[in-house]
Write a structure and sequence with these properties.
The protein is mainly β. Helices cover 0% and strands 34% of the residues. The strands form four sheets. The protein has a nine-stranded mixed beta sheet, with no helix packed on it. A hairpin with a 6-residue loop joins strand 24 and strand 25. The two termini are 32 Å apart.
Amino acid sequence: MAVSIRIAPGADVDPTAIIGEGSSIWHLSQIRDGVTLGENCIIGRGAYIGSGVTMGKNCKVQNYALVYEPAVIADGVFIGPAAVLTNDEFPRAVNPDGTLKSGADWHAVGVTIGEGSSIGARAVCIAPVTIGAWALVAAGAVVTKDVPNFALVAGVPAKRIRWVGRAGHPLDSVGDNRFRCPITGATYREVAPDQLTEESAS
């Protein structure tokens, strides 16, 4: 039996959007033209997903988050309440001559988010940046440069302060550049100042 798609009254879903089975789109959210959502995604109240954005399966976009095109979001990504993924490096409402800018007057750039990563509440990711797999962006952070896999970044501008595992918890150092997840027991090794690799899966 097919799994149903739930679209709440008041949600605005463009007819060209592709919505994966089992997904839920809640009140006042807007899904623009050409969007592709994978299976079992949850789009919270008032969230915005811009034209042509692609999102993998099992993602959660919380209330009032803004995901501007051409963002690319992998499987299992969490985007917290009121987080923003921008798309304009040099924003202006008008051209130098004072005329109103149109879509032809600028080039959209996107944010890329790797598998399993999380963007905290009210964080802002300034395009073009890539958030690595299983990374964690702290609430309120402003990301201005790429984030490595498994990195926990915080602050304005965001900087790496710890490593995290697939469970999202900070890893404990066990010496010799090795780390262990306190939740799963999985182990990791730091092979460079900004590069962590998995030694054993959880």
